[in-house]
Amino acid sequence: MGEPFKISLEQEFNLRKFAGEVKKLSRSEAQERLVELHRQMMLQDNLYRTLVARQWGIDAPPASG
Fold it and tell me: Distance between CA 29 and CA 47 in Å, rounded?
């Protein structure tokens, strides 16, 4: 297993593929997708907070924003 803060070769490939797809987007499409990505990252953060809180047996901390 490699270092935890590096991406794998497969992830690198997917990132390059994604970058190519992003270049094809219009500015407004890219902005919409960026906002949606940020929303999904906040949801993921909330999920991690809840899972850790449950594992530790504490109330889930409030979501920061």
Answer: 27
Average pLDDT along the chain, 65 residues, taken 10 residues at a time = 82 96 96 97 95 86 67
For the chain, what is the radius of gyration of the CA atoms?
16
The DSSP H or E segment spanning 58 is none
CB proximity list for 49: less than 8 A, separation 6 or greater: 60, 61, 63
| Residue recorded with tokens 């902005």 | 31
Please give the model's pTM, rounded to 2 decimal places.
Answer: 0.68
Half-sphere exposure of 10 (CA within 13 A, CB side): 1
